[in-house]
């Protein structure tokens, strides 16, 4: 319990620091750069920066509070009444079950923490202590997992961040060039504005490349219908049974809109064979005809 509480505080602290780092350039932009843009015929740039900032912060909050696709935990199976045998179970169910997807046999694991069989590409997150459908990764900066039900929200957030930091970087560079052209006079008249502009430019420029690289990386993952977890674990290196081609992969991830998640129950049924529910994931599809 102590570890979970400490881990929760750490996650909140990292997420809060992320919000603060995002806010510093925005606050400085609103105080110093908006008036400059308006006075120099760049009103559209000032409006764009404000709108992108507000929308990005909203996307941050929505993504951090969204359900990634958590499968509800079940009771310990040894205490479950088995209707087939007419008595309570005394042992755990088999740890692994084989299932075939697109001609490839995959191991379906039993989660001893959540007491469920995990659908393919479902992973138990040690930070959140839950099983997440089509788990991509745990993002410490939003203090939440990224999975099947919030992946599109995460992509929108990353895209908005890229546009937000691009706008602020452009304004900071324009102001920095102006200051350096008249550095001796500017440093005496506007020391706070100069230092703030330089700090803002450094933060936004570094953040821009990191966020933009992250967005490009996820576009690559989508084109292959894989995930961050699969990529770094080197799963499906020789053959990816979930790959349906570039267009189909993009459609399934970017354009397909899943049903509203009202809490996913266990896929483990003590009185029946293991059954994969297609609604849990787009991974289960009809094999292609020859």
From TrEMBL:
GO terms for cellular component: endoplasmic reticulum; Golgi apparatus. It is a multi-pass membrane protein. It is found in: Endomembrane system. The chain crosses the membrane at residues 12-32, 44-63, 154-174, 194-221. Signal peptide: none annotated. Pfam families: DHHC. Its EC number is 2.3.1.225. GO terms for biological process: protein targeting to membrane. It comes from the Eukaryota. It is an enzyme of class 2 (transferase). InterPro entries: Palmitoyltrfase_DHHC, PFA4/ZDH16/20/ERF2-like. GO terms for molecular function: oxidoreductase activity; protein-cysteine S-palmitoyltransferase activity. Belongs to the DHHC palmitoyltransferase family. This is Palmitoyltransferase. It comes from Theileria equi strain WA.
